[in-house]
Amino acid sequence: MFVQIKDNQNFYRDTESKALLNVNKEEFALYYAEREQKLKELQEKQTLENKVNKLEDDISEIKNLLQQLVTRT
Q1: What tens digit of pLDDT does each residue of 20-46 get?
Q2: For the residues of 26-38, what is the DSSP string, one character each?
Q3: pTM higher than 0.85, yes or no?
Q4: Most buried residue, 10, 37, 43, 50, by most Cβ within 10 Å?
Q5: What is the end-to-end Cα distance of the chain in Å, rounded?
């Protein structure tokens, strides 16, 4: 059973679990949209970090190969 919170018509209390529920669908949709955007940004950041790390490794490998070429001649 749900009981409406006195001070806010968008919140209900589940009397069994004592959970506080927001029944405003617009706020709920906005929360999920913001959450998805943050997850997307986090994934993009991780992808960029991985690319930078790969480039650093590649540059280091090229540098080592150049140093080997210089020491051979």
Answers
A1: 998 999 998 999 999 999 999 999 999
A2: HHHHHHHHHHHHH
A3: no
A4: 10
A5: 84
